[in-house]
## 1
Amino acid sequence: MWIFMNGGKKDGVPVRSGEATFPKAMDNVTVRQGESAVLRCTVDNRVTRVAWLNRSTILYAGNDKWSIDDRVVIVSNTKTEYSIKIFNVDIYDEGPYTCSVQTDNHPKTSRVHLIVQVPPQIINISRDITVNEGSSVTLLCLAFGRPEPTVTWRHLSSKGREFLSEDEYLEITGITRFQSGDYECSAANEVAVPDIRRVKVTVNYPPSIASPKNTGASVGQKGILRCEASAVPVAEFQWFKEETRLANGLDGVRIENKGRMSTLTFFNVSEKDYGNYTCVAINKLGNTNASIILYELSEPPALAEALQVLHLKTQTVTHSSSWRKKDDALCRGSEPPE
């Protein structure tokens, strides 16, 4: 074992550079996390002893390894260069390193600072959340990286509105049903591609029935009333005629609910079926209703005209046939039929 001496100081304590008579090591070495870093120190033939230190810990003294870290190896120890290599660099390797040399019994040092760049990584993000319309929502997206990543929130809607955030929080006051959906958090720096995660925000709201349309149907034909309601959670439907709630399968009607749509079907419309019906949409936040009329559908003008033409043709054919019978009777000398 050997030590450098400088005014009574023991080896392992970094010594400030004196009047530099040998070239300095590079000031900074920048590598990405997981890559390898080579720390080089230029020397000359006047150097008698060399060492690399990390802060106050000796890594190498000449060719002798003092570090117990298998990732640290010596790659060059010549008359012109003394270099070490650190494999699979991690964030805790960042910091100052000192190349200490001794020439003519005068120790000198040259310093290099290892900078470790870390790709952006989202380390904590809000879980999917369900809230009622009008509530306030705070979303968290905590990211780490070197340089410190920029966090950007974006609502993945048709408008694709972006929320630029200076910190990890996104606050939405009085959220509406139109602000539901996926929110994308992106953490970006210049080291690697952004890290992207998503949070699903579900906004509950009471039912709202779209503009209902009255429907016409002829007696004996099929008639269908439709009721569409948007709601979260999805609405349940009920149908009424006046004060009576209708039941599926009774009185020749069928009620069918699929998602936002409910249909009331009459397979054989009768006079008693005409009238005003009420559709009620219900979920845990409230209910709403709408009035829909099933009215009697008259024959279309085109159909009535076609029937009239057909009637006239039938009369004409019948009349012509009668005259032909009279003519035949006269030719035979017999009385024409009445």
## 2
Amino acid sequence: MNILRGLGILPVLLLAAGECHATGVTIGVVAPQEGNFALLGAQIFAGASAKAQQDGNTIVKIGESCEENSGAAVADALIAAKVQVAIGFLCSETLEGALPKLKDANIPAIAVSVRSRILMEDALKNSWPLFRMAPPDGAEAAKIIEVILRDWSSAPIALIEDGTIHGRELTEAVRNALEEKGLKPVFTDTYRPGQDQQIALVRRLKKAGVTKVFVGGDRSDVSIIARDAKAEKIQLDLLGGDAMRAADQPLALADGVFAVALPEYATRPGAEATVGALRTDGVEPEGYVLPAYAAVEIATKAVQDAAADERPVAQHLGGVSFDTVVGPITFNAGHELADNPYQLLQWRSGAFVQPNGQKQ
């Protein structure tokens, strides 16, 4: 059911907004409240509400259906609630319809999830006030390329992928960039995912003389490849992408496997106090909880700065370094993260940690 269809549902949206009434800054939080993404939406609402309540500010919760043509009604609800900034947004469909109206109302949007490059290009072309905390398309591949060129350039490497769209496109981007730099893999292949064993694959890797392997595939497949390589006494350094941040099952991942992935923000030293407070209140700081908390930190600071010099809030978002629970955040001239958040991590004793002595 499309809960956002038509302007006639605007009163319903506002009735269901679930405002935390307070004085000060008023921030709209847009996220799914029902359907397949409701759990992720609950994480966004929890993180945003925690920070707003701490500061005595107002949160206006707006449901997001992620359906086509739903964004205009979301924007109308935000405008009617007189929010000063809107954060959240899991879906590009919402932003596509909302941003033109948010521009006219001088309400910037801070997205914690949407990564569409085309959407951001449209936003910049039309001067829509979109700022993105999620890394853009290509950021994962860029970090993988950086790591391979830095750490593996003198070794025989292989690039293998699982045949899925993401795995294939990610691996192809890596291969093209490496070959442009004069680094040609000695082995490339598409393996069949979801198998109980990959012994034939690891034997072929050994025959090719490979010692370093990038895997464009799921964590479960990497676990099997690592197990079978060990059983065959084949020394392979394995590197996966952000898909490695998944459940450690059905086969546990072997220590030593690398991943280029987004960090676990809850483990940051600077996040300890916030994480402790959230858990005391019964909120597990997982998924989008801390990014949403950080988005409210950013929004609050921008609104306060705007009040001090009477410039639009959006002008206080770009080029400013914000100290947040997930680390320093700066939006560049393209309204994207100035720094690539992906990091090289290594699996040790049940968690991904920074490799000893490695630069990030």
## 3
Amino acid sequence: MSGEVGIVHIGCYTVEGGGRGTGIVAARRDADTGELELLGVVAATPSPSFLARHPRLPVLYAVNELAEGTVSAWTVRPDGALTPLAVRATGGADPCHLAVDPAGTFLYVANYGSGSVAVHPLDGTGAPGDRSDLVVHDGRGPVPDRQAGPHAHMVSPDPTGTGLLAVDLGADTLYRHHRDAAGRLRTTARIPTAPGTGPRHLARHPDGRRCFVAGELDASVTAYAWDGPDRLAERGRVRASERPGPVQPSEIAVRPDGRFLYLANRGAGTVTVFALDAEVPRYLAEVQGIGDWPRHLALLGRHLYVAEERADAVAVFAVDPGSGIPAAPPTRVAVASPTCLLG
């Protein structure tokens, strides 16, 4: 490796989730070339399908996407190795996403199968304690096999303060919660999406005024803007992909400078790039050259990393800094059933 080196961690599905991975993989990342040098499995843990870091401490968290869900925590050593810190029950089924509040005092977990959000207080070492709250959503949508009940799919803490957005695919709803000092949630708003959207994940714009929601079930991107402390107003919707056939959007991300939006499209096997120079995202390009099931993407420096869950690989694209468009073809690194990459 020729440039500055950092450590990334990669989550996966293991046999418990129908995957081929065996746990969390660490890799050295060259900031100049984007190259990943795999270091091997650093935590053998069941289906660590999504990862998060503590904002101040060297601590890594993972959901264990199981019928009786858990969240696991490790202390991260400088070489990327992980030392077990704690495992806690999330109180729900199939946890699929987690995030730490900006102060580093609470961990939020989305339980997909049971449609609930768990709150875990964090101690001075970053270890999660037993739940301080568990909020169960309600509602359903018009897609019977996916929306018979609530399915919390993402938790997104406000960059400052104690607010939380919870994205619920089954209920076609963005829940607005506020957390008190004891770690209890109070629901202050429910923002409905268009029926059948199946909201999966959202990406916040760095201007603090806008966010963008990926619709897994109707292959859409919906733009929202804050219209008060607890109100999001829809500004418009665009298609996720120009490709024919079924498309299921997965991860969505805004570039740190706020100029471009990136969306991974399962089924189509593409990443769509949108310009964010107006209220509604403007389609720029759709990049191919990845497997048909890109579950997650991450923007790290000048490169885009895409976890190809079914192709057992992570694709690495160089991104043009001016146009924002990834340059195909990518390079690839073999990783079994990757579902999340965290830099």
